[in-house]
Structure formats: C-alpha cells, structure tokens
Structures
1.
Amino acid sequence: MSKVNIINRSPYPLPEYQTENSAGLDLRAVLDETLELKPLERSLIKTGLFMALEPGTEAQVRPRSGLALKKGLSVLNSPGTIDADYRGEVGVILVNLSNENVLIEPGERIAQLVLARYENIVWNEVDELDETQRGSGGFGSTGS
C-alpha cells in the first residue's frame, strides 16, 4: 500500500476501489451542470482533487471501460500522467468518440486513476546494439 497525501475540494467522497482487487480508483466529474459533448468534442473536466505523490511514482488517468462501451467516451491522452511533483488539480481530458451527443452528469464516474512505479533513464550511448530475433521489425512483424 502506498500512502498519498490528498486534498479533496470536490463535494464527493475520496475515490474508492470498487472491488477488493480493482487496480483503479474512479474519478468523478466536478461540474456545475450537466455537460454535453458532441461527437469528437473534447473537454477538460476537473475532479476537485489535489495530491502529492512519492518520488518514483506516477498516477495514470485511464478510461473507464463501461463509459467507453456505453457512451463512446475515452480519455484523450490515455493514459494521462500525473507526475510526483505536480500539485495542481487533477483534470481529465474526455473525448466523445461516438456519433451521438453524450451527457456527462455532475458526480459521474468519468475515469480511473492507477498508481504506478517507474524508473528514470540514464542513457548509455553506444555505437551498436545487440542483435535479437526480431531485429528492426516494426508493428505486426512478430505475427498475428
């Protein structure tokens, strides 16, 4: 378990895991009124949450599968990254990928937040790389 300092300026409870083994916590839309997104329209939706992550961690903002299937909504920069040194309000860039207008209600669960650990890169510049079976094969080069 990781402990994350958080300020909740939304009218909703802190995000919670929906099941015992859920990887993501659901984020809620903080809106003054219902928002309508037209097809291919995008909007930055605030959550009222501010957090301080530990160095070596990031929070990933990901789409909710139910919203993607039922409404055609996705997180545009998926996964969105919240860096450990960011202290601003968590926002979600939602995009309507359906052919119909979609309504987003205040308090609706719009995305999920997943905590992930990472390592920083130290470059080691070389003149050539080791050979592999795949080599320089691109997308789809490994079969179906």
2.
Amino acid sequence: MHWEVQLIGDSGELAMLADAFTGSELNVERRAQGYVIVSTLFESLASADDVRERAKETVTAMSGAVRLELGSQVGLAVGAVYRIHDDGKSDITIFAEPMVVHVRALLSATFTVTTADGVSKVHRPADPISMWLPLAQEESLVAKALRLRDHHPLNWSDLFRIYEVVQSDEGSDQMIARGWVTKCALNRFTHTANSVTAAGDDARHGFERTEPPRNPMSLSEARQLVDTLLRAWLGWKSSQNPRRM
C-alpha cells in the first residue's frame, strides 16, 4: 500500500515538474486523473488527513519555486488523496475546497540545447526546482523563502520579507561580493520599500522616517531584483548540497 496526492495547477507547469521530479524520494507522475505526487515522505503516515497536511508543506514550497522559476501566476495546490492498495485498487479522499485551474499552452516541457561547440544538452525548465525542494525539507529558511514567494501579487512588504530571509543567511556584503546584487540596486530597493512617499500604503513603515529616495525603484524592478537574488541564493545553496530528489 502507498499514498498518492493529486497536484493541482497549470497543466504545462505540471508536465515540466513531472520531467524534473523523477527521483526516489519525491516523484511527480501522470495518472489518468491528472498529476500526482508519490513520495517516501508519506510512507509512515496512517490517514489521508495526515498525508494531505504533509503534502501541503511540500507543495507550498514547490509552488513558490514554480512561481519563481517558471513565472507561474496560479501556483500549485493539493487535491485528492489516494490510498493505493497492493491489488491496485484505491481509496479516494476528496477535500472540498474552491479552486481555479488555469491551463497554459505549452509546446514542449523538455527540449535540447546545442552549444556553439556542438555539445547537446537536454534542458528541462523545472530542473532547478528539483534541486531546491530538498533544501526546503532540510532548512527552515529556504522553506520560508519559498513559502513567502508563493504569495501573489508580491507587494513591497512581501518582497522585503523575502530579502530579509536571504540577508539573514548570507548578509548584504556576501550578496554583493558574490555578484547577486549591486550595492546601488540594494540601497535603492531598501530605501524605496521603507518609504511611504515611494511605496505608498504597502511601504514597510507607516510614516516617512528619512528623506524619500530621489530615484525610487519601481515595483516591477523590485520584483525582478528579489527574484534574481532568491534564485542566486538557492542556486548557491544547491551547489553546496547537490543531493537531488
């Protein structure tokens, strides 16, 4: 007997995840009813409720990663829970929650890239996510950053919280030294995020504590900066811990 958990989201993005998550600890697989998560994380659990709660922790981190790496507008959610018996029969537990599923056209989830020297490499867009999820299982800061990234749309306070998570782990000097962000861009971001004049009601402070920035950063620039910073941080941490699910 084993458990499978239905994964709800954009069909194209789910196909990418199925290409990327093919390891032993956590797989995303296609079934007749859609895509499911099959994981050793569920083996010791006795009830569908417990499986669902455990799956939600993983899927929240995965959803934030999908928003970050694939530009998802809808994220992911947990659907039904299936108990698969040894004879192939299954018990289905359906949890009634409102949900909206968006389907995006996708030509191919996997394609081959050929470099100038003639070397071909298979590219799967969701591969980085399969590297980040083990980190989220092991490190609370990574899980928190991806959980915060699952918010949509991201406002100034959301962005600053994500920045603070990364900053607490690496420090601003290290971010700059590694080339993840420039000092000028980081100062513009933090000054704008803290400024009521520049960021409005979404500013981190309720009143203007310093002079407003002369060259405030736009919200779209800030989202791009934080995503670049978060992606670089996750990539660096993955390179230090290359275990893949």
